[in-house]
Design goal:
It is a single chain. With 426 residues, this protein is of the alpha/beta class. The chain folds into two domains: 113 residues, Alpha-Beta Complex (Aspartate Aminotransferase, domain 1); 228 residues, Type I PLP-dependent aspartate aminotransferase-like (Major domain) (Aspartate Aminotransferase, domain 2), CATH 3.40.640.10. Helix content is 44%, strand content 13%. The longest helix is centred in the C-terminal third of the chain and has 20 residues. It is globular.
């Protein structure tokens, strides 16, 4: 195999055989990790997107359009995680363990800065699913109480509330999604009508992972707060993509994962807990190695954590802040615009995602004619394009979710492949 050109099938085979270790040991990957890095910004201070892309390990011939599921992690963060893990395993001394227990402080401060919150409102979880379940476990609810959910929420939100309602006796009511996106005013009115004097919690996803609908988060949090209703905003698809400002949105809880749009390590996540509800939020786990703030001391006693990943999470946030939150959102939206424009011009394609930029972000879901979604994703992978499939009857098809590390050539490669399959079959 030519070390200067790691083809996509060899890349996939190497990864399947040895995982990250095999990749980092491959001559081409060693070359990439050792290569000097260009500045992220040019002389005019504009972002150099080619330099940003060079921080990632994916070969140029692999177009990863799957940020809504799993993002690649840039090289400096991988080096941080592997370096700390190596040091901890080589020298598991009390002094080094004590140092690693303290890494949460820096990551917590970066999370607070990134989300425009206070470190005393930040919990470091393992992912959005865990964060959502901490909320549904930690609020006191019982017979006569209601939880209002959005039908397009992730299962870690909806299924959790429904299952726990059977145990604790509260009622779950639902606001149905409408496709195509009917507009923010529609959902504000629909949720407002559904609130009753018994509603204690309102929970919705900020950006849906199904059709990429952007929900009016600040407005929904406002109408809930006016009625004394606690809000949980699932930010799995907005954290790391949108320029989220929790000081404006004002949710009671906001959850997110590192491994999606933030491009961070696996099994690291965040739960924002507004100070106004902290006294009503009970811990889910009681154990050792809690955090340093009052909130973290109550809730983060989870025993041994993957502290190299937690520090790597902070390093990734620094990387994102260096690029700029508005720049990342604008870049990802522009890539999604290109995908929608290309797909809309293909005969047989039905877009489930709104064409209105104000009602979406960078999740683009579509039905590719009569093509089977699973087989289409397999064909895309063979052609060097990573995407996701949706089966069943509810908006079935393919999901492209480009992110700031992508190029417009990546998007065109994906659109061109769909065009080819529609003409010639799979």
């Amino acid at each position: 195999m030519n070390a200067s050109n790691l083809d996509r099938r060899a890349f996939a085979r190497l990864f399947a055989l040895g995982g990250t270790g095999a990749l980092l040991g491959h001559p081409r990957i060693r070359e990439l990790t050792a290569a000097p890095t260009a500045p992220l910004r040019g002389r005019g201070r504009e972002v150099d997107w080619a330099a940003v892309r060079s921080r990632f390990l994916m070969p140029e011939e692999l177009s990863v359009l799957n940020a809504a599921n799993l993002c690649p992690t840039p090289r400096p963060v991988i080096e941080s995680v592997t370096g700390d893990t190596d040091r901890l395993d080589r020298s598991p001394l009390p002094s080094i363990r004590s140092e690693m227990h303290g890494v949460k402080r820096g990551t917590r401060e970066l999370l607070a800065r990134y989300l425009r919150a206070d470190p005393g409102e930040i919990l470091i979880t393992r992912n959005t699913s865990e964060a959502n379940n901490w909320v549904s476990n930690g609020l006191v609810l019982g017979p006569g109480d209601e939880v209002l959910i959005f039908s397009d929420n992730h299962p870690s939100n909806n299924l959790a509330w429904k299952a726990k309602s059977e145990r604790f006796g509260y009622t779950v009511r639902e606001v149905a999604q409408v496709n195509p996106h009917p507009g923010s005013d529609y959902y504000v009115a629909a949720f407002e009508r559904a609130l009753t004097p018994r509603t204690k919690v309102l929970t919705f996803t900020h950006l849906t992972n199904t059709s990429g609908d952007l929900m009016p988060a600040a407005e929904l949090c406002r109408i809930a707060a006016e009625r004394g209703v606690i809000t949980l905003v699932d930010g799995a698809q907005s954290f790391g993509l949108l320029d989220v400002d929790l000081s404006v949105m004002q949710p009671d809880f906001y959850s997110g994962s590192a491994h999606k749009w933030p491009c961070g390590p696996k099994e690291a996540g965040v739960l924002f807990v507004n100070r106004r509800v902290q006294d009503r939020f009970w811990p889910s786990i009681y154990s050792a190695y809690a955090g340093e703030t009052e909130l973290a001391r109550r809730h983060e006693g989870m025993g041994q954590r993957d502290e190299p990943a937690i520090r790597g999470f902070g390093r990734e946030l620094e990387f994102l802040l260096d690029i700029g939150r508005p720049e990342i959102e604008a870049r990802s939206r522009a890539l999604a615009d290109a995908a929608i424009e290309g797909l809309a011009g293909l005969d047989g394609v039905k877009l489930w995602t709104s064409v209105d930029p104000s009602l979406r972000a960078a999740v683009v879901t579509f039905q590719p004619g009569a093509l089977d979604p699973s087989r289409t994703v397999e064909a895309l992978e063979a052609d060097g394009v990573v995407a996701a499939s949706r089966g069943g009857q509810d908006r079935p098809g393919i999901r492209f979710s480009p992110h700031f590390y992508n190029s417009f050539e990546d998007v065109e490669r994906g659109v061109a492949a769909i065009r080819r399959y529609l003409r010639a079959g799979l």
